Amino acid sequence: MGTLFFFHSPVPRLSHPSIPKPIALPPLSCFRNNGDVNGLHEQKSEGNKKVDMSQSIYDDDQNVKQDNIWQLFKEAQQNILYLNKQRLGAIDELDKTNREKQLLLKKIKKLEAEKQAGAGKGKSLSASSELLLRIDSMVLGSMISPREASELRSLVVNHRVSVADVFNTISQKRDPELLGDLRHFSNGHKKNGFHIVHICTEMTPLVPRGSIASYVTGISRALQRKGHVVEVILPKYASLNLDEVQGLRVLNAEVYSYFNGQLHGNRIWTGVVYGIGVILIEPVYYSSFFSREMIYGYPDDFERFSYFCRASLDYMVKCGKQPDVLHLHNWETAIVAPLFWDMFVKQGLEGTRILFTCHGFNSQGIEKPDKLALCGLDPLRLHRPDRLQDNTNTQLVNILKGGVIYSNRVVIMSSIYPKHIFVHNLSHELEPTLNVYRDKLVIAPYGLDKSTWDPLTDYFLPENFNAENMNGKAVCKVALLQQLGLSEHSSTILVGCVFSEGCDFDEKRVKEVILNAKQHDVQFIFMGTSESTILNQALESLQKELKDDNLKLVPTYDEALLHLVFAGSDIILCQSFLDPTDETPLIALRYGAAPIALAPDASTNRAIPFDRNFINQDNEATKYSKLINSTFGNMSLSLAIDEIRTNPVMWKRKIMQAMAHDLSWDGECYDVHVASYSAIKNM
Predict the structure, then answer these.
(1) CB-based contact 596:635 (threshold 8 Å)
(2) How many CA atoms, within 13 angstroms, populate the side-chain half-sphere of residue 36?
(3) Which band of pLDDT confidence, cut at 50, 70 and 90, is reported for residue 314?
(4) Is 583 among the domain residues?
(5) Cα 301 to Cα 299: distance, rounded to the nearest angstrom
(6) Domain closes at, from 426, 443, 460
(7) How far is Cα 604 from Cα 609, in angstroms, rounded to an integer?
(8) Are residues 273 and 344 in the same domain?
(9) Structural domain count, the chain
C-alpha cells in the first residue's frame, strides 16, 4: 500500500453573523507503509526482558491515527454545515436582490407610463401656477396695474387647456416678454373652475406638521386635477423644506403690511409644489416670528399669526388677486375672516367669499380684546357676544369663534363623528355659537393619496387587484408569507399590525390580543412606519417574551414590504379610527383588509353618546363614518376571525363593498368642498 497523506483544504473566508468560523485542524502525521512513524523501529531492554518498542509505538500511532481521522471527520462536517449555511444565505441575498430589482423595474415602468399619460396635464398645472405667480411679480414691480393683473389672472384661470401649449418656456422668459405674450393670448377653450387661495400654517411636504398639512395638499391636488386653480399662502418658516419647491424665487418688491401701528416690509417668495402655486411671506422687521424651532406653542402665537394673516391680505390686494374663495384653517388664520369683511372686501375683493375649515375645537385662540388692534381691527366693535366675545370668559375674545361667525361656510373635518356629535359634545363651550350657525356647518372626511395607495396600480405588489378582481390579493398573501418565512397554510388568517410614527404602543393590550387569538390559528406581522427605536425595542421585547413562530416582527422600515403587508393581510389592527393623521384604516379598506381597532371602545369613544343605528341614518355623517360603523367599527379581533371562518362568503362581500368606496381626496372630501364653494359663490 502506498503512502497515505491527509491535507487540510483551504476554506473560503466567508462571513455570516450567526454562523461560527470553521475550526482550524491540527497538523497530522505521515505514516509509512511499514507502520513506522518516520521509519523508526526500536527495541528497549528492561532488566532481563526485551520489550518490543516498535509494537507499542505502532499501537499508539494507530490510536492517534483513528483520533485524527475522527476529529477530521467532525470538523469536516462543521465546515460543510458552515458552507451550506453560507450558500443558503447567499441564495437569500440573491433572491432579495432580484425582488428589489423587479420592484425597481416595475416602479420605473410605472413612472414612465405616468409620465407619458400625464405629461400634458402636469405641464398645464405647473404652467398655470407659475403664470399666476409671474403676474404677481409684474404688478409688484409696477409693470402693470392691479386691474390688468386681475384681468390677466382671470385669463389664465379660465383658459388652462391652452396655457401649457402657448407658454411652454415660462421660466426662460423675462417679465416684459412674458407680459407681451399674455396680452396677445387668444381666448382658446374656456373652462369653468374655481380660483381658491388657502391662507394656512401647514402644507405637506413643506411644513408636514399635522392634519392641516396633509389636508391642504390633498384637497388642493384633488381640486387641480378637476380643473380648479389653487394657490397656498404660508409663513416662510426657517425650518421650511425648500428643496420641495420648484422655481423658487424672491419677488423684487417688498409688500408692506400694517401691524402695531406701523407699516412693515415683507419679502415674498414664490414657487410651485405639486403643480400648486405657493407664496411664502417672510417678515423683515419681525423676522423672529417664524425663525423658531417649533411652529406653534409660543406665548405670542396670536401676534405671529395675526401678522401673517394681515400680510397675506395686503399681498393679495397689492397684486390684484380676486380669488373666488379664501380658504382659512383653524384659529391661527381665522382672524382673516373679520379682517376681510371689516377692511378688505371693498379693495377689489367684492366677489370673494370665505370658507373656514376647522380640524377640531380643542384650541380656540383665547386672547385679550386689545390685541385685535395690532392688525388694525377695532376691539370695541368686535368684543360683543354676537361677534368675537368668548362664550365662557366674557372678558376675552375667541378667535376661532370669529372664524365661524365671519365665514360664509364652515367645514368640520371628521371622518367618524357626525355634525351633532361635534356641536353637542366636542365644541368646547362653542355649542351656543355652532347652534346659531348650524346651517352653514358641513362635515367632510379626510382622504387618502391614491397615487401612492391603490392596489390596482401599486408597483410594489407582485400582482395587482381591485374590488372587481380579487385574485391578486391571494398572490400577495403567499408572497408576503414566503418573504417573511411564515407558514403558507391556506386556512391561516394573517393579521398585520402597522404602527404609525408617534403612536402610543400599548404593549399590554397588544400582548392580550395576541394571546387571545393564538387558539384561532392566526399569524401576526408587526411593523412600524418609522425608524422609532423605542417602538422597535418594545416589539422585539414582545417577540422574545411570546416566542411564537406565528409572530413576525419587521424591525426596520421597508416601504415595499409595508405595501405588501396591507395587500397580503386579511385584517389590519389599528390604534383607533380617530387620529386624522393616521391613514392606516383608509389604506386597509383600500387594500381589502378589515381595519380592526386594538380597543374598539376607544375608537368609538364611549364617553360620547354614540348610537350606531342613529349614525347610519344621519345624513350629517360622512359615507366613511357609515361604512366603518356598519362594518368593522365595533368589531373585536376575535369576532372578525369568527366571521371569516364561519361565513367567508358574506365576509368577502363586505370586503369588496368597502374596497369599492373612493376614500381618496378625490372622493367624498372633494365633493363636499366643491359643493361648499358653489354654495357660497352664489351668495
Answers:
(1) yes
(2) 8
(3) very high
(4) yes
(5) 6
(6) 443
(7) 9
(8) yes
(9) 2
- Cell numbers given for 529: 412606519
- Look over the chain and give the mean of its residue pLDDT values, rounded to a whole number: 81
> What is the per-residue pLDDT across 249-260, written as a single tens digit (0 to 9) for each?
998 888 999 999
Which of these three, 424, 443, 462, is where a domain ends? 443
User: Which of 553, 558, 570 lies closest to 531 in space, CA to CA?
Assistant: 558
- Per-residue CA distances from 315 to 199, 233, 288, 621 (Å): 12, 10, 20, 38
User: CATH code at 325?
Assistant: 3.40.50.2000
Domain span at residue 594? 471-663
Assigned C-alpha cell, 434: 355652532
Strand 229-235 and strand 276-283: pairing?
parallel
Matching residue, cell 396635464:
121
Do 278 and 372 fall within a single domain?
yes
**In this structure, is residue 458 part of a structural domain?**
no
Q: Averaged over 469-493, what is the pLDDT? A: 86
333: alpha, beta or left, given left = phi > 0 and alpha = psi -120 to 50? alpha
**What 3-state class would DSSP assign to 524?**
strand
Same-domain pairing of 481 and 436: no
**Per the structure block, which three cell numbers stand in for 365?**
385662540
Helices (H), 261-393: 301-319, 330-334, 336-339, 379-382
Q: At what angle do helices 637-646 and 507-517 cross, to 10 degrees?
A: 20
Q: Which of these, 563, 577, 579, lies nearest to 502 by C-alpha position? A: 579
Work out the angle at residue 564's Cα, subtended by the Cα atoms of residues 575 and 640, and round it to the nearest 5 degrees: 45
Residue 453's pLDDT band, with cuts at 50, 70 and 90, is: very high
CB 628 within 8 A of CB 576: no
Which cell numbers hold the place of 419? 355634525
Q: What is the pLDDT of residues 293-308, one digit of tens each?
A: 899 999 999 999 999 9
Euclidean distance between CA atoms 274 and 281, whole angstroms: 19
Q: Is the peptide bond before 205 cis (omega within 30 degrees of 0)?
A: yes
Q: What is the pLDDT of residues 34-44, one digit of tens each?
A: 444 444 444 44
